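User: Hi! I'm working on a homework problem where we have to compare a predicted structure to a textbook description. Could you give me the structure for the chain below?
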Amino acid sequence: MFSAIPEDIGRFQYWVSFVNEKSFESVAEIGVWKGAFAKKILDNCSAIRDYYLVDPWRKMDDWNKPFNFKEDLEKVYEQAMSNLESHQNKIKVLRGKTTEVIDQIPDNSLDFAYIDGDHTLRGIAIDLMTILPKMKFGSFIALDDFTNPMQHGFDYELSLVDPFGLYFAEANRFPCAILGKSQFCIHVDSGKGFSLVDFANPDRSTPYPDIMARLSQHKVVKLGKKYSNLSTK
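Assistant: Happy to help. Predicted structure tokens:
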């Protein structure tokens, strides 16, 4: 069901193989950006009939992450559409926040969803909870950037895909796996019960991360304009 990502391939190639192996026909991607991931999948996975692109492509007043500030998001949208022009017969562009557009995806229709959107706690909670009713029984949800909360440094809100994705799987009694290269996958099958395979950290004693211990790896935390030592005691 799950396998580790080999050292000699990247995440795009891994998910192309995964989608092809299972002959997925209906796919959604939350957080499309310039369309690089979607293009790779659509260029190489001929079984796909419907590919939903969910992304607001606009500045968000309540989103403190780098991509919200550093580029002209209208130009990012135009580049995404250009990159995916050859797949117009398959893509369905849902331009808006997940909560604004998710109802345009039929319930119980998706074979696979790839989430690489708002990595804040609020964002990943909304994305996972709203995409779940759209998934078929036995489908898969993949998460990108299952990584350290300090992904974007001191000036931005924490990234909490890890651990929220893990807790979401446990709450719904779904099997899941940490695949390596910041990738996480959930099998939407509560009949199997919750389980975790951690390919990235096979010797870790517990799958539940100590957030404060992980933050302390960065030695200091910015508190307003002051820096102080971070203790986990």
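For your comparison, note the following. Helices lie at 11-22, 36-44, 73-83, 98-101, 121-131, 161-171, 211-215. The chain has one domain: 11-203. Good luck with the assignment!
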